[in-house]
Amino acid sequence: MTAPPTSNWLITSTPQDNRTQLFHLPPRPFPPPQLFSQPPDDWPQPVPVPAVPAAASALRALEALDPTPRINSPTAANVPGAKPHPPVKPPAWDLVLIVDTGASMAAWYESINAFVESAYKLGHFADVPVVSLHSQGFDPNRSVFDSVEVGRAGLGDPERKKIVLVITDAVGPAWQGQTLKRHLAGWSRTHPLAILHVQPHPHWGRSALKTRPLNLRSAELGGPNTTFETQVPDFEFLVPAEPLPDSFVVVPVMEMSKRWIEQWCRLLNSSKWVSQQAVVFPATPSPDEPDTLSTASSADLAATTPRIPQARRERDPLGAEGLVVEFLKKSVSDTANLTVLLAAAPLNRHIMQLVATHLMPHTGPEHLAEILSSGLIQVIGTKDPGSAPYDQIVFDFLPGVRKQLLARQRDGQKDCFEVAQIIDKHLAAVVPAVEGLAERIRQLSPPDIVNITEENLPYLEVERDIFQARIPRARADAVHRMSENIERFKKLTHSVP
Fold this sequence. Notes:
With 497 residues, this protein is α/β, with parallel strands linked by helices. Helices cover 31% and strands 12% of the residues.
């Protein structure tokens, strides 16, 4: 196999950018946007992927696209021959960040926040607008993009120079349809556009993006994607590659890391051939599809709503036990162990990260992302995970899955007790239903009388499943009454007239 030419790769020796900034970049007059809801200050704060700030700093290389004079060193006053600096003009380029807010992206919110905050510190971009991409979710009639945000960012406006980055895991159903591709292909004809994949390259096969290696060269510095020249790499002769269509747009796809972003910056900054992973979109995707999520996917995929889709399987003929067995068999051990622990907890991204931080601190967002896109989880709330508060439950396991997972805990009462202690400590002040949960599990005493409401229903269902699946010595009569009351409440409030 022949490797790509060495000259095609820009090699960096360290993951961090330690260059000294020789000129002063004025701070922005406004802070970065608050993209996602935050947990209380006394909760452990999830840590973003360490390489993310360095990845954002790699965008400094795009300053070469701006011919604006810069102040590189101070000029001493009253020194013979000293010349005044030319006036510093405003930067010529904007950086538009399109952020996927799909349900499976919840694990990466801290890393996205870190990337956006780091990008805001780059003074050579005039503006850093953020546009939400609704790839997966809660209102099927909602547009994939908000027209107000798109208009405010100026996407598609040739009068303003823009660099566009799409941050996503490409798992949401919108990535299966033509609407999103039509938008990206259209913007790529006006601006240089690339996709930042939050997952490492070996895991891209789980997503809807089918990338291929290509050698690219830009005929115009900072030109849109339609100015790219393409070559099929030499090593593809061993496995014949699919021919490129007659009319297409190439969109580079990168890991969110310094090395990958520097490689893409080299493509925009020079006329050299550069090796890139890329996805090929039709230049003019079918315009017949409405701009809503309900029709952004195939009919089979739409039938699984509100379930978070699994990447390579849209429909599951297996029951709850089969789903659990298949997932645990294919997932890494840390992901499997974290999934089993989370079966004893109500689910939103804050609580899931809280349990992981306390009981499995060596896990990272990639493990939680694997759980969210496992096909075991469904959406039960009406709010996006990004805006839902820490005490509102937005996820749940599919019917029967929680009990199957609880049955696979090594020490059911001990594991459930440890999770309940965490939930009780951090949520009891705002969710009375979980107050004393750990003690009830320790004493094997389910509650006798419960006032069920829409707010505490998800918490009570978790407690009922814990007692039914893992603590058979608990009072069977109390567990039975609790289950009957829950089902009666759900029948009365969730029935369709």
